[in-house]
Design goal:
Shape: globular
Largest sheet: 6 strands, antiparallel
Number of helices: 6
Strand content: 25-35%
Strand order of the largest sheet: 1-2-6-5-4-3
Distance between the termini: 67 Å
Number of domains: 1
Length: 161
């Protein structure tokens, strides 16, 4: 019976290790050579969120409500083609498993950019961008609990300017 408990525990650990999200992808790739990596923590977002009326330069758009709702920002830029291909495959697997919705895809002269979100009709829980060209691959993941109406208002105001 003891062996059964150990086997079940090992199985659960291995299943959770296979789960991919922005943080796990960042942790997997951020220490490699030829990788630029940026992580912004929830504590930093709370600090930034205390600044009143954060404006985009040259725009009349207040970012403070959105920033307060973020819990993590992960950015990877990879110039090693083999590593970039591995990252793209991992991102595609985690997008497919996570019920992400494709927001936009743009293709231009070999460059492909895709944006995805996951959430419900009231909330966006995660935003993912994957952009690949011949020389580098960029991955951005923004996690949080962003009210969809605030995000839509922000986008509408930015587009109207």
């Amino acid at each position: 019976m003891k062996k059964l408990y150990i086997l079940v525990a090992m199985l659960l650990v291995s299943i959770s290790a296979l789960a991919q999200d922005g943080r796990s992808l960042y942790n997997k790739y951020s220490d490699y050579d030829n990788v630029e990596a940026v992580y912004i923590s929830p504590a930093m977002f709370r600090l930034i969120g205390k600044i009143p009326d954060i404006q985009m330069e040259g725009e009349n758009v207040n970012l403070a409500p959105i920033i307060k709702s973020l819990s993590g920002l992960y950015i990877l830029t990879i110039s090693n083609q083999d590593l970039a291909a591995d990252l793209a495959a991992d991102v595609n697997r985690f997008i497919q498993k996570g019920d992400y919705e494709l927001l936009m895809e743009a293709k231009d002269n070999g460059e492909v950019t895709r944006m995805y979100t996951v959430g419900d009709e009231r909330t966006v829980n995660s935003f993912v961008l994957l952009s690949r060209d011949g020389e580098e691959t960029n991955f951005i993941c923004i996690d949080g609990t962003i009210p969809r109406d605030q995000l839509e208002d922000l986008i509408a105001k930015a587009a109207a300017e």
